[in-house]
């Protein structure tokens, strides 16, 4: 087993065990989306129109939830020191942690998305497409969030700072995610272009996120 | 193999901790760093491990692997034990063995060396402070690296465990390894040289 997979497996294991917080993101997402129809009232046409925006905002906020713990726990118990002393480049170690984080927080959220169409008056087929946009876009959220998590690691109570740092950077993801989802549900704009850009954003942050996060961690050394 | 420090300086938070530090350490030798609280013992160890910026001077490991940093060739045991409470004792050690060496390795001898083998399946949350420290030390046995950096390694350890650690250190030195330890008291190595830093 390579160092990379060892780290991914460890982080997944940590998050599914007691106190790990896996599924918290999905539960939060579920609650936020469920509350919306109660707040907006039973206007079915309105719900269908703003459904994608609600889903994307919910996913965005849910992905922030556990982010501040991504490096903080390793920092607090000294594991981060040892992770930096490994043979594997820190960029890869950071990427491994991000992948484990995405698998345990974003993936469950995507899986339950189709069911939430019931709450928002969106038919199942269209919800499948919305889930597809989340699948394409949430890696960008995780890997952009990775940078904020690395920057705020040495700060106590970095959670709020993290949100302030990360959320503005996720605006493009939000715009193209909602555009693609809207195209799938109500049309008439084509689905292809915004979805392609969404994929591009994810791929770009997949490359840039680990490099920036590793640089932030190294800079955080005293 | 030789660890060389020339005119080494350290500053934390804008304050100079120490400066002009020189020492040489060859294979098979141990160095015990002593000094008052705040003299920079821990900072020196973290600096060698690559976890604190070198403010001045030079630090080199001659005869080591040229493509690896000093930190990648050393083990660091600090005040924190890097133990995850929700993983079992065996899982904790297995992870570090895989991560630091990147190959599948048996961890049983290492657990036996620190007398934790019977607890391998116990979640680490139930370990005492001394047992956690021993688990941290097991890492040094599981993954061979030439330089050990030990920050007050005997803290929280009972006398039998201290003796076992001294045995491990002696066999590491006998195999050509090097040890730099920060300590206030004796660590059980008769051959160790002392490096005093800071004001007396």
Radius of gyration of chain B, Cα only, in angstroms?
Answer: 17 Å
Q: Please give the oligomerization state of what you see.
A: heterodimer
Shape of chain A: elongated
Number of helices of chain A: 10
Structural class, judged by helices and strands of chain B? alpha/beta
Which strand-content bin applies to the residues of chain B?
25-35%
| Cα end-to-end separation of chain B | 31 Å
Largest sheet of chain A: none
Instruction: Give the SSE string of chain B.
Output: EEEHEEHHHEHEE
Percent strand of chain A: under 5%
Overall mean pLDDT of chain B: 84
Distance between the termini of chain A: 33 Å
Order of helices and strands of chain A: HHHHHHHHHH
Describe the structure.
The complex is a heterodimer of chains A (222) and B (200). Chain A has 222 residues and is mainly alpha-helical. Chain A contains ten helices and no strands. Chain A has helices at residues 3-16, 24-40, 44-65, 69-76, 79-84, 90-120, 124-151, 159-166, 171-185, 192-219. Chain A starts with a helix and ends with a helix. The mean pLDDT of chain A is 85. Chain B has 200 residues and is of the alpha/beta class. In chain B, the strands form two sheets. A five-stranded parallel β-sheet of chain B has the order 5-6-7-3-8, with helices on both faces. Chain B has a three-stranded antiparallel β-sheet with strand order 2-1-4, covered by helices on one side. In chain B, helix 2 packs parallel to helix 4. The longest helix of chain B is centred in the C-terminal third of the chain and has 16 residues, at 159-174. Chain B is globular. Chain B starts with a strand and ends with a strand. Classes of the chains: A mainly alpha (222), B alpha/beta (200). Chain A binds chain B through residues 1-3, 6-7, 10, 13-14, 17-20, 76-79, 81-88, 221-222, and chain B through 12-13, 46, 49-53, 68, 71-72, 74, 76, 78-84, 86-87, 91, 95-96, 98-102, 104.
């Amino acid at each position: 087993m390579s160092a990379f997979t060892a780290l991914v497996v460890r982080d997944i294991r940590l998050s599914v065990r007691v106190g790990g917080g896996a599924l918290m993101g999905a539960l939060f997402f579920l609650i936020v989306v469920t509350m919306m129809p109660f707040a907006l009232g039973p206007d079915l046409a309105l719900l269908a129109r703003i459904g994608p925006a609600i889903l994307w905002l919910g996913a965005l906020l849910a992905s922030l939830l556990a982010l501040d713990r991504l490096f903080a726990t390793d920092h607090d118990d000294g594991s981060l020191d040892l992770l930096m002393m490994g043979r594997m480049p820190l960029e890869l170690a950071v990427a491994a942690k991000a992948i484990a984080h995405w698998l345990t927080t974003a993936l469950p959220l995507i899986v339950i998305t189709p069911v939430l169409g019931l709450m928002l008056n969106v038919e199942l087929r269209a919800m499948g497409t919305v889930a597809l946009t989340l699948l394409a876009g949430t890696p960008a959220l995780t890997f952009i969030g990775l940078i904020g998590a690395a920057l705020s690691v040495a700060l106590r109570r970095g959670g709020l700072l993290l949100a302030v740092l990360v959320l503005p950077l996720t605006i493009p993801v939000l715009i193209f995610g909602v555009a693609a989802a809207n195209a799938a549900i109500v049309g008439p704009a084509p689905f292809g272009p915004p979805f392609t850009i969404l994929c591009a954003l994810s791929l770009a942050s997949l490359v840039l996120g680990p490099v920036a996060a590793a640089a932030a961690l190294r800079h955080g050394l005293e | 193999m030789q660890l060389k420090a020339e005119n080494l300086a350290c500053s934390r938070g804008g304050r100079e901790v120490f400066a002009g530090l020189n020492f040489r350490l060859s294979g098979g030798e141990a160095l015990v760093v002593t000094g008052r609280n705040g003299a920079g013992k821990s900072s020196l160890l973290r600096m060698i491990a690559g976890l604190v910026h070198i403010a001045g001077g030079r630090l080199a490991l001659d005869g080591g692997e040229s493509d690896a940093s000093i930190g990648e060739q050393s083990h660091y045991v600090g005040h924190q034990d890097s133990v995850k409470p929700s993983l079992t004792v065996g899982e904790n050690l297995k992870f570090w063995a895989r991560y630091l060496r990147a190959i599948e390795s048996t961890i049983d001898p290492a657990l036996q060396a620190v007398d934790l083998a019977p607890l391998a399946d116990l979640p680490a949350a139930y370990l005492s402070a001394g047992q956690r420290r021993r688990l941290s030390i097991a890492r040094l046995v599981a993954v061979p690296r030439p330089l050990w950096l030990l920050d007050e390694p005997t803290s929280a350890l009972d006398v039998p465990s201290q003796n076992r650690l001294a045995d491990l250190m002696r066999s590491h030195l006998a195999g050509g390894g090097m040890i730099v330890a920060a300590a206030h008291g004796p660590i059980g190595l008769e051959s160790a040289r002392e490096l005093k830093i800071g004001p007396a």
